[in-house]
Design a protein that fits this description.
Elements lengths: L1 H14 L5 H9 L5 H8 L6 E3 L22 E8 L2 E8 L10 H17 L3 E5 L10 H17 L5 E5 L2 E3 L4 H5 L2 E5 L4 E3 L3 H8 L5 H5 L1 H8 L4 E3 L2 H12 L40 H8 L5 E4 L7 E8 L2 E8 L10 H16 L4 E7 L6 H5 L2 H14 L4 E10 H6 L9 E4 L4 E3 L3 H8 L1 H6 L3 H15 L4 H6 L4 E2 L5 H11 L18
Parallel strand pairs: 3-4, 4-5, 5-7, 6-8, 7-9, 12-13, 13-14, 14-15, 14-16, 15-17
Antiparallel strand pairs: 1-2, 2-3, 10-11, 11-12
Helix pairs in contact: 4-5, 12-14, 16-18
Length: 514
């Protein structure tokens, strides 16, 4: 038995060396960690239980019969993060460039199936050259098996993709199906076709970084939800995100202890919204003053910045926040903002995370570019997402709520549970100037001083309609509240909604306007 135990230890030690010292050294020279180093950094110390460490590929062509590495380029298993279970796969670039083979795919699918049965999140650490070319269609089939599992797991368990190297071709579609994508600057890339193919087909000269680097996907495409300077920072923030999420759709997000006696009126909130309705302000100031410990974990921070999405806590309970940002494009809804927010709302609803909406929206962005690219269809995605969501939903209108955007941003009419307004709220079909120019067009034109007449009518309209009280009379907002009392009101409201039950009509699934 002693000899057999020694043999087992030697075999496992060999497997842990990946592609060997030379290739590990090359990996480190690129500023990248190895597959196992990443897992050690991500999970609780000593908690990783590896699976399939002895798996080898079954290919025989192109000399592969002479090249075998235990594990076949991916490390898989189960572990704990903050003492909560997770499933993990970490691709090993030192073995065949992390390329996906038939057995490589089988290992990932096995750990995903375990995760779905156990109801625990899956974290994929991606660092791969793509499908293993020597295996042909078999490796492509492995990707398709993975795509199917990603789809079936969607809404069942959280799926996080961490891009820590190249991710090209078919490899990008698994992360795209998952809930959140993390990237590390300078070392991670995602693209369907690389720069060389792009140059051949379109004659464009573009670098890896510009085509599919972390900052490109964080700010232009919206593919990456989170981007950090290096792998260490990226992995630490994966841990942070998991702290807001439940293990599965039946579970609850972790709650932190909270002392309700610490809630006090916040007078700073009364001075953030300017008296001039056309003057911008930073909605993040409001967010930081109403959430627990000024702690807000923003999603898509550099993409579609006219809307803010992210996770926080109120009264110790995890919530999702969607807020218009008046400091960017006046907080208007455009295509990218609508899709960004819709995706976030649907994630929160899938996993039972209550939603807070902070509203200051002048409407949808006008113009041919928006219309021709489908602002109607994309704006409808956000409307659909809010309408479909059955989790607790609360809205606070801080200033403007104009036109169809008022309806879309979780209004009472689409099942907002509690809808509050600040005294500064302006709720109307459109802004005072636009409304007056339509309603009193002829009267203003006939006036001896059209400019003065316009100003007078704008003032009359603003005094009569640009306030929250007509809406409150109708019950479309539940209360007009003092800004300083917002935090207390929201914590109480979310507490009342802890036992909320709402359902949608029985169906196979709806047809969201994709």
């Amino acid at each position: 038995m002693k000899n057999k135990i020694k043999e087992l230890k030697n075999l496992k030690e060999k497997a842990k060396q990946g592609g060997g010292k030379v290739k590990v050294k090359k990996q480190h020279a690129k500023g990248k960690l190895t597959a196992r180093e990443r897992i050690e950094l991500l999970v609780d110390e000593g908690s990783f239980d590896e699976l399939d460490i002895f798996v080898k590929h079954r290919a025989r062509d192109f000399g592969l019969d002479k090249q075998h590495f235990p594990g076949d380029g991916v490390v898989t298993g189960l572990a704990k993060i903050d003492e909560r279970p997770v499933a993990i796969f970490s691709q090993d670039f030192t073995v065949f460039g992390g390329s996906l083979s038939e057995t490589h795919a089988e290992k990932i699918c096995k750990v995903m199936n375990i995760a779905m049965k156990a109801g625990i999140p899956v974290i994929g650490l991606n660092d791969s050259g793509g499908a293993r070319i020597q295996e042909g269609v078999v490796s492509l089939g492995g990707y398709a098996d993975l795509f199917l599992l990603n789809t079936l797991a969607s809404g069942v368990i959280p799926q996080l993709s961490v891009i820590l190297g190249p991710c090209a071709g078919g490899a990008v579609y698994s992360p795209a199906i998952t809930d959140f994508v993390f990237m590390a600057k300078s070392t991670s890339y995602m693209f369907v076709t690389g720069p060389n193919v792009v140059k051949t087909v379109t004659h464009e000269d573009v670098s890896f970084e510009d085509l599919g680097g972390a900052e490109t996907h964080a700010s232009k495409s919206g593919v990456a939800h989170f981007v950090y300077d290096n792998e260490v920072e990226t992995l630490l923030n994966v841990r942070k995100l998991l702290g807001y999420l439940p293990l599965n759709y039946r579970d609850k997000s972790p709650e932190l202890q909270f002392d309700e006696t610490t809630i006090k009126p916040e007078q700073k909130l009364e001075n953030i919204v300017p008296d001039n309705p056309n003057k911008p302000y930073d909605m993040k100031e409001i967010i930081n003053l109403i959430v627990d410990d000024n702690d807000f974990f923003e999603v898509h921070e550099n993409y579609a910045e006219n809307i803010i999405c992210g996770f926080s806590r109120m009264g110790g309970t995890a919530i999702g926040i969607i807020a218009n940002q008046p400091a960017v494009l006046a907080g208007v809804l455009d295509i990218n903002a609508s899709v960004k927010a819709a995706r976030f709302v649907r994630f929160c609803d899938a996993f039972g995370i209550p939603i807070l909406v902070l509203e200051d929206v002048p409407g949808f962005l006008p113009g041919t570019e928006q219309e021709w690219n489908g602002i109607i269809r994309h704006g409808a995605k956000l409307l659909y997402a809010f309408s479909e969501a059955t989790v607790p939903k609360i809205t606070v209108i801080t200033r403007k709520a104009y036109g169809g955007a008022y309806d879309v941003m979780n209004s009472k009419h689409i099942r907002g549970d509690f809808n509050f307004a600040w005294p500064s709220a302006e709720i109307a079909v459109m802004g005072p100037k636009g409304a007056v120019e339509i309603i009193f067009k002829k009267e203003i034109e006939k006036s001896s001083n059209p400019e003065k007449a316009l100003d007078k009518k704008i003032k009359e309209y603003r005094d009569k309609f640009a306030n929250p009280y007509i809406t409150a009379e109708r019950g479309f907002v539940d209360d007009v509240i003092l800004p300083g009392e917002t935090r207390l009101k929201l914590i109480n409201a979310f507490n009342y909604l802890r036992t909320k039950v709402d359902t949608n009509p029985k169906k196979k699934h709806g047809n969201i306007p994709l």
